[in-house]
Q: What sequence folds into this?
């Protein structure tokens, strides 16, 4: 059954904020990389209570075995479980997808360690995590990561790709909405105030990528399980922003 209120709210948010501009493309790359690893790959979706942007490529692929977990039951959840202690044996999956989840767990490093454990050698992970976003889901929101911080979080993985999800324009719309929310105490009023500024997100197309990274709305990482960790000395050179 379709929840029309949630659907209308989601469509309104996408109209104002522009949705997720890169998830579909990254989802396709994730699937292609999986198929190079195994004939019938097993994928774990952490926080799969709702199907996220880009996951259609996983659910609609007939040759991929998808297991969804979350802390609550839903039609998309196979097992109710805590990501800090995944109820799976070592090397159980070829891939893990974790999208807009790491900000909602108390110990992201423990969760990523568990992801590393349940992945097969050479298995892949795809993660999306907010950066310049205000608190959402209230008391269940704990952490933000810059591109560099996100890379360090996944330091036990070899990087295949990484980047930004939305730029400074999209981040500015979030800020306008939350300023209006703080002034009015109303989510509906805040969305109404932010809506006329939808055009700001189009400015992201013209931003320099190195400078835009410092104000990205979110970040993503696609990586391969490794036995060699990134060294602390490598982190300064990893910084994707301006050199001066």
A:
């Amino acid at each position: 059954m379709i929840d029309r209120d949630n659907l209308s709210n989601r469509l309104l948010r996408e109209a104002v904020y522009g949705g997720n501009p890169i998830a579909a493309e990254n989802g396709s790359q994730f699937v292609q990389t999986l198929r190079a690893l195994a004939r019938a790959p097993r994928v774990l979706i952490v926080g799969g209570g709702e199907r996220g942007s880009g996951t259609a490529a996983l659910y609609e692929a007939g040759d991929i075995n998808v297991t969804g977990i979350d802390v609550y039951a839903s039609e998309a959840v196979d097992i109710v479980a805590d990501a800090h202690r995944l109820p799976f044996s070592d090397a159980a999956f070829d891939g893990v997808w974790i999208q807009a989840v790491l900000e909602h767990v108390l110990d992201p490093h423990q969760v990523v360690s568990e992801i590393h454990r349940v992945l097969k050698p050479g298995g892949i992970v795809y993660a999306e995590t907010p950066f310049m976003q205000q608190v959402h889901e209230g008391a269940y929101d704990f952490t933000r990561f810059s591109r560099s911080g996100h890379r360090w979080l996944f330091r036990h993985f070899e990087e295949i790709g990484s980047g930004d999800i939305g730029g400074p324009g999209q981040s500015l719309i979030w800020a306008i909405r939350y300023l209006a929310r703080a002034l009015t105490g109303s989510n509906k009023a805040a969305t109404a105030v932010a809506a006329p500024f939808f055009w700001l997100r189009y400015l992201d197309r013209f931003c320099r990528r190195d400078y835009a990274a410092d104000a990205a709305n979110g970040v993503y990482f696609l990586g391969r399980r490794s036995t060699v960790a990134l060294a602390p000395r490598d982190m300064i050179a990893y910084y994707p922003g301006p050199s001066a």
